[in-house]
Specification:
- The chain has 104 residues and is an all-alpha fold.
- It is 70% helix and 0% strand.
- The protein has a domain of 63 residues.
Length: 104
Amino acid sequence: MALVNAQNMAWIDGLKAELSAVLLILFPTLVALAFAFFVWGLIGFLTHSGDETARVEGKNRIVWGLAALFVLVSIWGIVTLLQTFVFGGAPNPAPPAPKTIYGG
């Protein structure tokens, strides 16, 4: 029978910290890309009012951009709920609003 040495499991904490650092960069990037895709579809929909195929493509981009935003925000909410209520940790706060040059 093999006994597990708890000190040798410290690599899990390092892996968790590395994964958390990657996700803190990846998640806002994915949200920004989904929003950009939505805006791209909106601009295409509004600027090509005479071309029906371009309008359909714009509508599709709008729908897929909104769907991606919904999925990403839902995953963020579910992870926060699990982290708070199941694992008893403090939730990750929303990223702070950017500062302006006017002191806001």
